[in-house]
Specification:
Blueprint lengths: L1 H30 L2 E16 L2 E8 L7 E5 L3 E8 L8 E3 L25 E7 L4 E6 L4 H7 L3 E7 L5 H4 L3 E10 L19 E4 L10 E3 L4 E8 L5 E5 L4 E6 L2 E9 L1 E4 L4 E7 L5 E6 L6 E2 L2 E2 L4 E6 L31 E3 L7 E2 L2
Parallel strand pairs: 1-4, 3-8, 9-12, 11-21
Antiparallel strand pairs: 1-2, 1-23, 3-22, 4-6, 5-7, 7-8, 9-10, 12-17, 13-16, 13-18, 14-15, 14-17, 18-21, 19-20
């Protein structure tokens, strides 16, 4: 009898364990989804600032490329059609590609480059979570460094950190640099000795960039992505920020700062509490990066504008500026998960 009781107890325990495991597995199964996106690569002309145009190889005809916003564990398929006259690939920067190394997007290593007129399909699982990005990996010295072949890839975690739950506004800033010598010479440039003379936030230089409009009390997440060839020292006036994530990963000991160095390929997520109403400059403290060619007061600069403060001072450079929302993907990040084009980044097709 005791043996029968023991066997019965063991069987019951196994059934209970199986039930618990099934319950634990259920959220994961319901969380992950399959998502399919279509993406083109197009010859496109964009305007960096004033009259300085540039020939780019643009994802979906825009620079930066469309936002891809998914959940951790999602199965992602991206069908890429190369409409340009040069070969390309897409590297999914920061994604681990576990069991899918052929999807890493490196020509002559994981795949043949996508020839002009050809297509390629990438399939992978979106992991790990965090601020990631994508870019061409063919002739990165030119295609990524100065042809605008980059875009943000944001992967939301299954279990957000407490600090993430406090965020009320979410912005993406992709930092890049351009050598005007090669502006309309596709297939050339990005070589040692190049002089970078234009510097942009999301493909635009001040004053053609846009402000960051906030309300007192907002908690802002600012996702910095080093998409270019140079290192940028980003300084924010009037606030101390918390450096909370590095390359998509939460830091075990977040730290406070007001200036941070962002190198090529790096990502930092900063958390700012909007507690000091005013107009506050955000700029690169590598001073030569705040120029447009040979003209000062340009380049990597923008302004935090509190909505509580009027914008009509006669000396204010942006007194009459027409505000274009979604310049930092702040509206796209509110949309349902998916791939989101942004009209504000669209260029002019080059035939």
């Amino acid at each position: 009898m005791p043996q029968k009781s023991t066997a019965f107890t063991a069987a019951s325990h196994l059934k209970n364990m199986a039930f618990v495991l099934a319950v634990l597995a259920a959220p994961t199964a319901s969380w992950a989804e399959k998502r399919t996106f279509d993406m083109t690569i197009e010859d496109t002309k964009i305007m960096l600032v004033d009259k300085q145009a540039f020939h780019t190889f643009a994802f979906n005809g825009q620079v930066p490329g469309p936002l891809i916003h998914v959940k951790e564990g999602d199965e992602v398929t991206v069908n890429v059609n190369n409409l340009t006259t040069l070969p390309h690939t897409i590297h999914w920067h920061g994604l681990l590609q576990k069991g899918s190394w052929r999807m890493d997007g490196v020509p002559d290593t994981t795949q043949a480059a996508i020839k002009p007129g050809d297509s390629f399909t990438y399939k992978f699982v979106a992991e790990p979570s965090g601020t990631m990005w994508y870019h061409c990996h063919v002739n990165v010295n030119e295609h990524a460094a100065m042809r605008g072949m980059w875009g943000p890839f944001i992967i939301d975690p299954k279990t957000p950190k407490p600090i993430e739950k406090k965020v009320t506004k979410d912005y993406i800033m992709m930092l890049s640099d351009w050598a005007s010598k090669w502006a309309f010479k596709p297939g050339y440039g990005g070589v040692p000795g190049d002089v970078f003379d234009y510097f942009t936030l999301n493909g635009k230089a001040f004053p053609d960039s846009q402000p960051l409009r906030v309300n007192k009390g907002d908690v802002v997440r600012l996702r910095l992505i080093g998409a270019g060839d140079l290192t940028h020292s980003i300084h924010i006036h009037g606030h101390v920020f918390l450096v909370a994530f590095k390359d998509g990963r939460p830091l075990p000991a977040p730290y406070e700062a007001d200036t941070i160095m962002v190198g090529p390929g790096e990502r930092y997520d900063l958390i700012l509490t909007m507690d000091n109403p005013g107009r506050w400059m955000v700029h690169d403290h590598v001073d030569s990066h705040t120029m447009n060619g040979d003209k000062p007061m340009g380049g990597l600069m923008t302004v935090i504008e509190y909505n509580e403060i009027s914008r009509d001072d006669p000396f204010y450079a942006w007194k009459d500026k027409v505000f274009e929302p979604d310049f930092y993907y702040e509206e796209s990040l509110k949309k349902p998960y998916g791939m989101h084009d942004a009209a504000v980044f669209k260029g002019q097709a080059i035939q």
